[in-house]
Design a protein that fits this description.
The two termini are 22 Å apart. The protein has one domain. The protein has 171 residues and is mainly alpha-helical. It contains seven helices and no strands. InterPro entries: DUF4199 (IPR025250).
Length: 171
């Protein structure tokens, strides 16, 4: 199991790094909304290795059988590789590559809220946003937020993959 988790975890981590880098270089002129969609799509694509890892374990290492619980654990461990890679990459991007990203993004959000919300609601949301801004200016919080996001998506994919791929040993 360990070899499968490490191999497919590394595949997922490499894939998410490549897709993140491609999105940065090719998507600079895109809107924040479209960049966000591309980011989530990158996460899902890199987590496809969860399915393939569980399938590989079932078919080649465990004589064609895997329980739902074992599949879920394998999937979560594979997801952890991609989650850590994405969290680290995001911190590197925000801290070193584009240190103005947070300020630019918050400026964009404020402008969007200003044009879409009534004045009273805007003031309330702006106050909430300012509190969040302080919280997410920390590299550790950025890492945790991005890693957790990938891990949650990985959990969902692990659940689905476990349900699809579970198979009892033949008697």
């Amino acid at each position: 199991m360990k070899n499968t988790v490490v191999r497919y975890g590394i595949y997922g981590a490499i894939t998410i790094c490549i897709l993140f880098t491609l999105a940065l270089t090719l998507g600079k002129s895109l809107s924040y909304s479209l960049q966000e969609v591309i980011g989530y799509a990158s996460m899902v694509v890199s987590l496809i290795f969860v399915f393939f890892g569980i399938k590989h374990y079932r078919d080649t290492e465990n004589n064609g059988a895997v329980s739902f619980g074992k599949a879920l654990i394998i999937g979560l461990l594979i997801s952890l590789f991609a989650a850590i890679a994405f969290g680290l990459l995001d911190v590197i991007y925000i801290k070193y590559i584009n240190p103005d990203f947070s300020a630019e993004y918050y400026g964009h959000i404020i402008e969007e809220m200003r044009t879409t919300l009534p004045e009273e609601e805007f003031k309330i949301k702006l106050s909430e946003l300012e509190t969040q801004k302080e919280l997410f200016s920390s590299p550790l919080m950025n890492f945790l937020l991005m890693s957790t996001t990938v891990l949650i998506i990985g959990f969902i994919i692990s659940l689905i993959s476990g349900l699809i791929l579970q198979r009892r040993p033949s008697q």
